[in-house]
Amino acid sequence: MKKMLGKRALSSFVSLMVLIVLVFFLSRLTGDPAALYLPVDASEAMRENFREIHGLNDPVLVQFGRYLSDLIHLDFGDSLRKARPAIEVVLEAFVWTLQLAVITMALVTVAAIIVGSIAAFKVGRPFDRFASVLSLIGASAPDFWIAIVGIVLFSVTFGWLPTSGTGSVWHWILPISVLFIRPFGLILQVVRGSMINALGAPYVKTARAKGVKNRPVIFVHTLRNAMLPVITVIGDQAAALLNGAVVVETIFGFPGVGKLMIDSILQRDFNVILAAIMVTAIAIFIMNILIDIAYALLDPRIRA
Amino acid sequence: MSETTTDTATDAAKTPPVTATTGATGLRRILRMLWADKLAFMAMLFLLVVLLGALFGPMSLEEMTTKTNLRARNAPPFDLSRGFFYILGGDALGRPLLARIIVASQNTMVIAAGAVLGSLTVGATLGLIAGYAGRWTGEVIMRLADVIMSFPSLLLAVIVLYMLEPSIGNLVLVLAITRIPIYLRTTRAEVLEVRERMFVQAAKVMGASNRRIIFKHILPVILPTLLTIATLDFAFVMLAESALSFLGIGIQAPEVTWGLMVSQGRQYLTNAWWLAFWPGLAIILTTMSLNLLSSWMRVALNPTQRWRLEIGGNKNG
Amino acid sequence: MKQSTLLAGVLLATSALSPAFAQEANVTIVLGEEPDLVEPCMATRSNIGRIVLGNISETLTELDVRGDEGLKPRLAESWEMVDDTTWRFHLREGVTFSDGTAFDAADVKHSFERAGSDQITCEISRYYEGIDITPSVVDDLTIDFKTDPAQPILPLLLSLLTIVPSETPIEFTREPVGTGPYVLSDWQPGQSITLERREDYWGEQPAVTKATYAFRSDPSVRAAMVATGEADIAPSISAIDATTDMDMAYPNSETTYLRVDSSMAPLNDIRVRKALNLAIDRNAFIGTILAEGTQVATAINVPTTLGWNPDTKAWDYDVDAAKALLEEAKADGVPVDTEILLVGRTGNFPGATETYEAIQSMLSEAGFNVRLQMVEVAEHEQYYSKPYVQDQPVLVGAQHDNSRGDPVFSMYFKYHSDGRQSGIDDSHADELIEKATAATGEEREALWSELFGYLHDDVVADVLLFHMVGHARVGEAVDFTPTIATNSQLQLAEIGVK
């Protein structure tokens, strides 16, 4: 296990470095941050001065060298626009995204496993059809559309929930509900499919044929065997959420990493982009390790 | 995590494929299996309609959808006095929504199909190489997949659209690149498993060339899985394209896609709901149809499950 | 910390919901974008100025945007010209900064030098480009500004210079100190900024005791927040949502136009530029795609600007005349069939995409070969500012904001042959701009007036479109009327509490 961890860490590190190099050079090809930061009627001298202050006039390779040597000292550079360390900006936003992702995924996992399993036990029956179609409709609608309809309905018309922002527990309900829909539809499908397979396995059939009436026992055993593909999908979906839920964060004014990312990209705030990528990449790496551990616990063969 | 497969992968891979039945009998068999699943059948019909619209719509309706007519601005739906194509209402520039949805279906389909086919081809090829070639090549390709996966797709979109220019082709490129890892990882995982199986080993022993093994023995086994993923991905790409438009970095007017129509119409949600609703409905119906079709395909392509449809078909037929 | 935000949120929610708390005079203002900094010397940037100007930081002079008093004293009590090149300002006595130190002439000198320093990039220094200005302290409450060349509108320029204490380091600060009636008390990045009223402010105490700013990029969410009582003022909502009696329209000093690069054929032919103007039915936009109250523009500056020319008449809508002009130009060998690129910026103003789509359709109707391309802000900048794209003729749809009363803030940049966004190279226009910039009083007004007419009728420099209106939604608990300057500043003192 330790050896595997080491190997994983090394290969992830290599990927991360390649990623940093790519982002560093490619993002610098997308225009001059000075032109974006300063008003359109600013003079060339002001632009020049801005580039000079932020070291954007040096050859890109020199800039990269400087960035790397700072990085070794855990200095991620300053945000071009906010006059504060990029990593601070990113971590602040990441805490929000992490909470949002963890809560959403926890709810999705529990709900999808319960509904998906019931659907699998009742293949083709009304409950199964109903759950599948409904979850598919939800997962097929553009999320910004759902979000705005949600605000119009639950905040403006009924006045039940705050429209947006942060603060109380109530503020979390709408964003989480919107984020919930798509992974729920997807994971539900996988749970259902996987459970149907597992229920068809010889030992379950035997147990059922032998007249084991104890549904919970069947349920637990089948579930355990059906879990592997489910965990994979959960991992993929969680990774997507950790990258930030751009659309939802933008609409609800939620201060997460997705909103920070899109703003920084549009404003060419390179240091923030890089820091955000590194933080999310590390988070996803840790999550993947947790998933591997979950695999190992569920399937003894992998442990070996 | 990258070593595992999805459920679709495992059940399709349990047995080697039966040689495909050819000709009319095959088609009739497929139709019968489709008929057995009424939802999938309707989904197929709907997709055919969309396909026809995408093929012939722009040719015949282009004129109507570019001419602005401010007198019909936000014309309400279900009013035939302005003509049939206004049945779903008019948009903010008074253009008939129905005609625009039909015309937009072409771009929408081209983008989604282009991105899916592109990522499927590249991803599957790389995955085959990664699974079949030596450890080093495999390792490098897998790390490449990791890099693509953690490269923010929004940044990729901005980079490509800035350096090239915002066009449908370049958007397809962006979306295709971001979806490559899905196919790559699935393919590789399947190849790793399949190549240890008896019939592949046997072929090897009998001296079959690598190419022959890949195309004759491995590809047919993993193709069903890839196709299922591709149908699901088709829906995903449509939604991703829509989100990009919403954020202002995707397709922009005067080009038109369903996603762009929804994102432009959203500001009218409270006083002219139909602007965002109909194109949204088109997206939902199409993605749903694809999803239904994909779950039908999962059964139909799986020899151990296929009997469900065949029996059902007989019962109904 | 977590808990305190939660608590603050709960308090906020309850205070917004129950009228019993209204006497506290807390207001919540919801804006479209969060400022990156709350830095006084960046106050000319609208998202910073709306929070800083007149609330945290003050200026020596102030333009009256509600009445017509022109330039009013604020931190300066009076000013005069000592000689042709020297302005003297007499400062207000008894003013203190929020850190307790007293305000004097040294602070003004430091603020000016800090804003112009090359160690930071303060935006406002661009208005002092090309003029040599040396401040010198006469005594604690008197300061001289020596300019080279003469600068007749220096007092107006100083309405942009926010005053910071002389101890302020020359680097961007996130904890601004100013003489204004409010002090920044809390900043939760991504969520809110809170200003609280100072008890030791030199002037009249404003009614609002605490102001919280929230940030939502979607205009319909901003409107919804006022509707549900989560916010009191949304200074900018979409015209489409402005349908309730809480909403009011106001001219927001923005002017939209198509910048024409007249160095490229066929746009270098005046008949083609005239045809462009004749082909667009401007009135058809008003009350449809653009809000009721939008005005057809005949100049890049709004009618309240000095020297605005009432005699320039807007272009008629006449497709036939446009076609005839194009035919004529074509007969003379002008390549009128060349594809022209029309560049618009997504989200530049509400209805931007629809506006440009309609313009494209109108121009095509008249026989132009126009391709529309909507781009994001960085790409737009590539087209808008020099050096221009050279591979095809381009029309750039843009929006310009000048609420400061004098065309000097626009003319050089937009029409002088050296201006960064100028599409023309016309020596007479250059001369008029230079003369007007140096002139004062009636002469200045007359020169600007002549320039406006010349650009519109003789040069046909561009395709002027509209003076825009904004929409604000104001909740029932407060009293607030937006002004032409609400885009760039929002003084809390102007908010009444019911």
Give a concise summary.
The complex is a heterotrimer of chains A (304), B (317) and C (498). Chain A is an all-alpha fold.
Q: Which series of helices and strands of chain B comes N to C?
A: HHHHHHHHHHHH
Shape of chain B: globular
Categorize the overall geometry of chain A. flat
Distance from first to last alpha carbon of chain B:
44 Å
Distance between the termini of chain A: 9 Å
**Portion in beta strands of chain A:** under 5%
- Largest β sheet strand count, sense and barrel closure of chain A: none
What structural category arises from helix and sheet content of chain A?
Answer: mainly alpha
Outline the fold blueprint.
The complex is a heterotrimer of chains A (304), B (317) and C (498).
Chain A: H1 2-27, H2 33-37, H3 44-53, H4 60-72, H5 86-121, H6 126-140, H7 143-157, H8 170-199, H9 202-209, H10 215-242, H11 246-252, H12 257-267, H13 270-298, H14 300-303
Chain B: H1 7-12, H2 23-36, H3 38-66, H4 97-132, H5 135-150, H6 153-163, H7 168-194, H8 198-205, H9 210-247, H10 258-265, H11 274-300, H12 307-316
Chain C: H1 2-17, E1 26-31, H2 46-52, E2 61-63, E3 71-73, E4 76-83, E5 86-91, H3 105-116, E6 132-139, E7 142-148, H4 154-157, E8 182-188, E9 192-197, E10 210-215, H5 219-227, E11 233-237, E12 247-260, H6 270-279, E13 295-296, H7 319-331, E14 340-345, H8 352-365, E15 370-375, H9 377-384, E16 394-401, H10 408-415, H11 427-438, H12 441-459, E17 463-474, E18 478-479, E19 496-497
Parallel strand pairs in C: 1-10, 14-15, 14-16
Antiparallel strand pairs in C: 2-3, 4-5, 5-7, 6-7, 8-9, 9-10, 11-17, 12-16, 12-17, 13-17, 18-19
